[in-house]
Structures are given as structure tokens and as C-alpha cells.
């Protein structure tokens, strides 16, 4: 069984025109569509497959400030309150709750890093508390182990990856937006260098504003327009166990395994940062830009296989807008998980939390994470084409900050004061060197 996802039904009718067309109905795309529709714009959200079916339903579900890179922290903080705002307005559960996040370690270097981050974060108003050995043992009593120390971030939380994007899409509909599933956007139509429409497999939507929120599909889509978007795709493998385990933390991170309580009472099990880099034409083209990232995280990443190459989502080739594109060939990316990673994850999680030894496997899956060379997303209306805004490259952080990222997109398009500073999210930063600027977390 692949990652659980709550399906929703939407109207297949393609509107002839819109104020804004959003390409991609992952957490960032649906959030952008929601805030734009709530702001009074006529919005069309296009999804080649099903809402939330790729990485937005295949992640841990963490919504955290803890250990965020300084460039993302303000957006993370704002997103926590926006999760609550959206839930109240939409009237549907997104599975969001501030259950607190627990980090435990027996490594002094790791503890020192968390302490340094905490000094900075408390100065930014973040509620984060270092734990002594006795405090860590008490909060982590389900592990039945001693710990050197840890961190407790009580105001952070989790949401349900199987529910969040579909329910936010319902919010788009509530505010009179359009959500069109199983309809690929083949490309953008230009007039005098500016957006004038979006060409889909079902016809053209006239619009002067497009948001590209296509996740790992973003680079090849933008390449059709001559925009260089450096991107690597990391395949992450995860599993879940059935409900029944009792006395476990809602969200626990350690070096060897991390666990998160799911909406159905089961648990998602994963190993942080343990991914496979599947080669693609795009990553081969951007190798030099990614050297700092690979140099910093080589212990966590390993070479993958040719799945991504065969899927064709990161191609360098140009395609015809009159013919089916790779988005129509592969409606939903559902890569095979890495068996060795799944085996290690289950063994590590059971060693960490003995209660899990009695839990049966529920599902196992993999997903592709869209990463930039510095691990920080692109949210930028100055793409080089008037009317084209890029919101992609969220580097495994997109789920938690999705509501804030979508709000920021709406701020830019509506001409409002942005909820956070935006200069750190500019695409133009990759025209300069990214050496030494890789995100720590």
C-alpha cells in the first residue's frame, strides 16, 4: 500500500479565464490558491493527477520552528498560526495540532548544535527548551533509555499529510475558486514577453498570472520557458504501522529513527535525511551548483537508481504543447521505496520504542523531495517573465510551511505587505555562488 490520501471530488469543467492559474495542487499550490481565492481573486488550481498525491501526502507531517534555518524561521512561525486560521475558516480538520516536538540525543555535538540554535531562536520569540539528562529520560520514558539530553518545542506540532492538501482544496472551493484534477498544464502562453494564458491538455485558460508550484516537476516546466531552475530530486522512503501502540510521544526525533503519530492512531516511521539521489538530466546539468550541498550532507545521501530518469519529470528536452507531455504520461509519481532503508527504519524504530515491536506494518512508500542547492525554497515573482511566479524547491520543508508560503504568494500577487521578508527566497540568488550557504537543517 502506498501513502494514504483522502480523495476529493472536483468539477472537471475548465474555466475559460482566470485572474490567477496555479499549476500543482500540493500543499504549497493549494495554500496559494486558498489565500488568493480568500483574497477575492478568480482562481483556477490545476493538478495533473490528484490533489496532494505526491510529496504533500508522503512526508512526516511535522509543522515545526525547531531547528529551522534562519531564512525559513519567520515563515515557519507564521505558518503555525495560519494552520489554525485555515482550519477554522474551512471548517474541516487538517489534522493540525500543537502537540510539541521532542528531540533526544546521546551525542554532545548534536546537543551543542541544538543549544546554539536555541539561543538564536529564543531571541526570535520561539518557545524551545533544552532538556537535561533527567528531563530527557522523563519525556522520553517510552524509549526506556538514558539520554544525554534533548530539546522540547511545545508550540510546534503536526498535521495530517493524508488530509491537509485535500481539505485546503475544499477551502479553495468554499471561496469560489476552481480545482481541476487530472488536467495537466502543458505550458504557458506569452504575448510580448508576458503571460497571457495557460495551455492545458483540455484547452487554454486566459490569464495574466501563473504560479508554478509543481514540486519536482518545476524545473522541466520552467525549462520550456528558458528559465534555469537548479533542482535535485531526493527519494525518501517511509513506512507506517497500524494503530494500537500506546504511551508513545506524538512526535519524536532521534538520529537513528523518528516517529510521528498519524490521524488514525498509527505511526509514521522514518530516518531523518536518509535519502537516495536518483540521477536525472536536471541534476547532471546542475551538479556544480549542488556540490556544497552534497559535500555537507554526503553521509546522509546515497546514490539511487534510474526510476526518476524513467519517469521523465526532470527532463532537459523541450516538448510540444500540442502533444501529451511527461505530466500526462505520469499522473502521480509513486516511486518504489528503498527496501534496505525500510528495513533499517523499522529495526531502528523498534529498538528506540519497544512498544512498536507489536505493531503491524500498515503501508510503505517513497516520494521525491524537490531540493535547491542551498536547501531553501524559491518564492519569487521576478522569474524573468512578467506574470510568472515560482514557488518550488521546498527541500523537504514545504509541508509545515505550506500555509505561510501560500500566503506569501498571495501577498506578492495582491500587492499586500508580505507576512515575512522575501529576499531570501529570490531565484536570482543562484546566479551568484551558493557556496557556504547550505541550510543546516
Total number of beta strands:
21
Q: Helical segment tally?
A: 12
Contiguous runs where pLDDT drops below 50 for at least 5 residues: none
Q: Write down the oligomeric state.
A: single chain
- The helical percent reads 25-40%
Largest sheet: 10 strands, mixed
Mean pLDDT level = 95
Radius of gyration: 21 Å
Distance between the termini: 30 Å
Silhouette: globular
- The proportion of residues in beta strands is 15-25%
Structural class: alpha/beta
Question: Features of this protein?
Answer:
single chain; 441 residues; alpha/beta; ten-stranded mixed beta sheet; 12 helices; 22% strand; globular
Question: How is the secondary structure organized here?
Answer:
Elements: E1 20-23, H1 27-38, E2 43-46, E3 62-63, H2 73-90, E4 101-105, H3 108-123, E5 129-131, H4 133-139, E6 149-153, E7 157-158, H5 164-174, E8 178-180, E9 185-191, E10 194-200, E11 203-206, E12 210-212, H6 218-223, E13 232-241, E14 251-253, E15 258-261, E16 267-270, E17 275-277, H7 281-285, H8 287-297, E18 301-303, H9 307-311, H10 326-329, H11 339-352, E19 361-371, E20 378-380, E21 388-392, H12 398-414
What would you note in describing this structure?
The chain is of the alpha/beta class and 441 residues long. The protein is 29% helix and 22% strand. The chain has twelve helices and 21 strands. Strands 4, 5, 6, 13, 14, 15, 16, 17, 18 and 19 form a ten-stranded mixed sheet that branches. A hairpin with a 2-residue loop joins strand 10 and strand 11. Helix 1 runs parallel beside helix 5, helix 1 runs parallel beside helix 12 and helix 2 packs across helix 12. It is globular and about 65 Å long. The two termini are 30 Å apart. The model has no long low-confidence stretch (mean pLDDT 95).
Amino acid at each position: 500500500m502506498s501513502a494514504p490520501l483522502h480523495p476529493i471530488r472536483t468539477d472537471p469543467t475548465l474555466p475559460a479565464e482566470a485572474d490567477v492559474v496555479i499549476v500543482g495542487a500540493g500543499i504549497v499550490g493549494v495554500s496559494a490558491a486558498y489565500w488568493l481565492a480568500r483574497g477575492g481573486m478568480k482562481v483556477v488550481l490545476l493538478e495533473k493527477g490528484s490533489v496532494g498525491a505526491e510529496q504533500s501526502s508522503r512526508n512526516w507531517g511535522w509543522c515545526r520552528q525547531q531547528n529551522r534555518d534562519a531564512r525559513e524561521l519567520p515563515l515557519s512561525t507564521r505558518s503555525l498560526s495560519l494552520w489554525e486560521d485555515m482550519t477554522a475558516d474551512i471548517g474541516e480538520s487538517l489534522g493540525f495540532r500543537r502537540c510539541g516536538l521532542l528531540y533526544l540525543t546521546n551525542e554532545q555535538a548534536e546537543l551543542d548544535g541544538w543549544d546554539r540554535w536555541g539561543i538564536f531562536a529564543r531571541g526570535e520569540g520561539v518557545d524551545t527548551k533544552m532538556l537535561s539528562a533527567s528531563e530527557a529520560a522523563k519525556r522520553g520514558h517510552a524509549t526506556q533509555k538514558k539520554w544525554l539530553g534533548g530539546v522540547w518545542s511545545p508550540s510546534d506540532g503536526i498535521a495530517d499529510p493524508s488530509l491537509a492538501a485535500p481539505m485546503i482544496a475544499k477551502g479553495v472551493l468554499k471561496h469560489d475558486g476552481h480545482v481541476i484534477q487530472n488536467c495537466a498544464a502543458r505550458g504557458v502562453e506569452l504575448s510580448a514577453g508576458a503571460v497571457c494564458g495557460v495551455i492545458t491538455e483540455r484547452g487554454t485558460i486566459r490569464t495574466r498570472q501563473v504560479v508554478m508550484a509543481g514540486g519536482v516537476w518545476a524545473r522541466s516546466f520552467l525549462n520550456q520557458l528558458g528559465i534555469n531552475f537548479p533542482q535535485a530530486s531526493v527519494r525518501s522512503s517511509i513506512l507506517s504501522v497500524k494503530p494500537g501502540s500506546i504511551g508513545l510521544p506524538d512526535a519524536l526525533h532521534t538520529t537513528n529513527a523518528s516517529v510521528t503519530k498519524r490521524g488514525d492512531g498509527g505511526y509514521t516511521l522514518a530516518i531523518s535525511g536518509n535519502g537516495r539521489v536518483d540521477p536525472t538530466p536536471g541534476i547532471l546539468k546542475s551538479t556544480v551548483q549542488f556540490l556544497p550541498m552534497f559535500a555537507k550532507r554526503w553521509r546522509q545521501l546515497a546514490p539511487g537508481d534510474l526510476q526518476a530518469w524513467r519517469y521523465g519529470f526532470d527532463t532537459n528536452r523541450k516538448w510540444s504543447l500540442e502533444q501529451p507531455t511527461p505530466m500526462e504520461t505520469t499522473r502521480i509519481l509513486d516511486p518504489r521505496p528503498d527496501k534496505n532503508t525500510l528495513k533499517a527504519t523499522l529495526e531502528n524504530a523498534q529498538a528506540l520504542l519497544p512498544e512498536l515491536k507489536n505493531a503491524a506494518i500498515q503501508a510503505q512508500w517513497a516520494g521525491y523531495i524537490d531540493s535547491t542547492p542551498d536547501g531553501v525554497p524559491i518564492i519569487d515573482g521576478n522569474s524573468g517573465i512578467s506574470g510568472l511566479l515560482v514557488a518550488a524547491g521546498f527541500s523537504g520543508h514545504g509541508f509545515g510551511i505550506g500555509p505561510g508560503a501560500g500566503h506569501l504568494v498571495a501577498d506578492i500577487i495582491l500587492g499586500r505587505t508580505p507576512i515575512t521578508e522575501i529576499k531570501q527566497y529570490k531565484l536570482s540568488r543562484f546566479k551568484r555562488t551558493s557556496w557556504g550557504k547550505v541550510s543546516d537543517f
